[in-house]
C-alpha cells in the first residue's frame, strides 16, 4: 500500500464515511429472526466473566468453529462445525456473495449498556480478508480510525439488524471500536445504547498456534 495518506480526505469531511471496503447492509435479518437468534444464543453457554476459554474477559461471548483464546493468542481445541442455528445466515452471506465459501468461525459478543470494544484490527494472520458483523438488539456507533493517520476518525452507525462488512482498506488499514457511552450522537441523531449482541463471521486464515498481532490486553475492557 503506497500513498495511503494522500487518498484520505480531511477528518471533517462527511464523505469520509466512504471508507474503501466498508459496506453496511440494513435489515440483514428480520425482527423474527433477531428474536429467534437471541433466544437460541441465550440458551447456550456464554464465556467470559470467569468462564473458559476467556475467563479474563469482562464481555460475555460465544465462539464457534475455531475457539480463539485471547490470552494464549491462538485457536484452542479443534475446529468444530458451526451450529445449525447459523445456517440461514451463512446461506444469506453466500447468496449475497459476501463470502465465496462458508466462513469457518463465528464469535458472538454481548455488550451490556456501558460496555464496548477497544480499537483493534482483527488479527490479519489469523483471520481472512472479509469480516462481517451482524448487530442485534441495539444500534451503536462503530468508529474507524486509520492506523497510519490516527487523525482520520470515522464514526459509522450500525443500526439494529444491519450487517457491517469490512474488506480491503477498511479491514486492514483502519482500527474499529465501539465506545462504552450510554448515549451517542451522530449527525444530530441520538443513539441510546442498550444490550447489544453481535455475530461476527471470520474465516480462519492459518493453522492454530501461529503468532498474531492481536492487541490482546487492550481488547479487555
Ligand atoms: O461487535 C461488533 O460489531 C464487532 C466485534 C469485533 O470487532 C470483534 O469481535 O473483533
Ligand atoms: Fe473486530
UniProtKB/TrEMBL annotation:
Lineage, please?
Eukaryota, Fungi, Fungi incertae sedis, Mucoromycota, Mortierellomycotina
Return one Gene Ontology term, BP aspect: demethylation
Q: What is this protein called?
A: Fe2OG dioxygenase domain-containing protein
Q: Domain named Fe2OG dioxygenase: which ranges?
A: 102-205
One molecular function GO term is: demethylase activity
Tell me the organism. Answer: Mortierella polycephala
Recorded hits in PROSITE patterns, A to Z, give: FE2OG_OXY
Pfam families per UniProt: 2OG-FeII_Oxy_2
Amino acid at each position: 500500500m503506497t500513498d495511503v495518506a494522500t487518498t484520505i480526505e480531511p477528518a471533517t469531511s462527511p464523505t469520509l464515511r466512504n471508507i474503501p471496503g466498508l459496506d453496511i447492509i440494513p435489515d440483514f435479518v428480520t425482527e423474527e429472526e433477531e428474536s429467534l437468534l437471541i433466544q437460541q444464543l441465550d440458551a447456550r453457554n456464554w464465556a467470559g466473566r470467569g468462564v473458559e476459554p476467556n475467563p479474563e474477559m469482562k464481555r460475555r461471548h460465544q465462539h464457534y468453529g475455531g475457539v480463539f483464546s485471547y490470552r494464549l493468542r491462538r485457536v484452542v481445541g479443534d475446529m468444530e462445525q458451526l451450529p445449525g442455528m447459523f445456517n440461514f445466515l451463512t446461506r444469506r452471506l453466500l447468496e449475497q456473495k459476501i463470502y465465496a465459501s462458508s466462513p469457518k468461525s463465528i464469535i458472538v459478543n454481548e455488550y451490556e449498556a456501558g460496555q464496548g470494544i477497544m480499537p483493534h484490527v482483527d488479527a490479519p494472520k489469523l483471520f481472512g480478508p472479509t469480516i462481517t458483523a451482524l448487530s442485534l438488539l441495539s444500534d451503536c456507533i462503530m468508529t474507524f480510525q486509520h492506523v497510519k493517520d490516527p487523525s482520520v476518525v470515522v464514526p459509522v452507525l450500525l443500526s439494529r439488524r444491519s450487517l457491517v462488512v469490512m474488506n480491503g482498506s477498511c479491514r486492514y488499514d483502519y482500527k474499529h471500536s465501539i465506545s462504552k457511552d450510554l448515549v451517542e450522537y451522530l449527525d444530530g441523531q441520538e443513539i441510546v445504547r442498550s444490550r447489544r449482541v453481535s455475530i461476527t463471521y471470520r474465516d480462519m486464515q492459518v493453522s492454530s498456534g501461529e503468532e498474531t498481532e492481536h492487541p490482546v490486553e487492550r481488547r479487555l475492557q
